[in-house]
Amino acid sequence: MTKPMKYRDLVRLLKNAGFVFAREGKGDHEVWEHPELSRPVILTQTREISPAVTRIALKAIEQLSKNA
């Protein structure tokens, strides 16, 4: 089971994987995109990111490493 991650740590992982901040969504949401992926990763600007969102972001990073 995926554990929640701190916002800073997850953003650091996304940046290291090549994701870029695309835009702000509604409320406290952020859209992060990668040129090789068709779907963006949506994060909330909270101290801890929920396990479900963490899992989605880690799967996107894993998908990039498989394609490389």
List descriptors.
68 residues, alpha+beta, Metal Transport, Frataxin, Chain A, two-stranded antiparallel ribbon, 2 helices, 5 strands
CATH superfamily: Hypothetical protein
Q: What is the SS-derived class?
A: alpha+beta
The tally of beta strands, per DSSP, is: 5
Into which percentage range does the β-strand content fall? 25-35%
**Series of H and E elements:** EHEEEEH
Helix content: 25-40%
Q: What's the arrangement of strands in the largest beta sheet?
A: 2-3-4
Largest sheet: 3 strands, antiparallel
Query: What's the helix count?
Result: 2
Shape: globular
What are the segments in which pLDDT stays under 50 over at least 5 consecutive residues? none
Looking at CATH, which topology would you report?
A: Metal Transport, Frataxin, Chain A
What would CATH call the class?
Alpha Beta
Radius of gyration: 11 Å
Please state the second-level CATH architecture.
2-Layer Sandwich
Mean pLDDT: 95
Protein name: Response regulator consisting of a CheY-like receiver domain and a winged-helix DNA-binding domain
Family: Belongs to the HicA mRNA interferase family.
GO molecular function: DNA binding; endonuclease activity; hydrolase activity; mRNA binding
InterPro entries: HicA_mRNA_interferase, HicA_sf
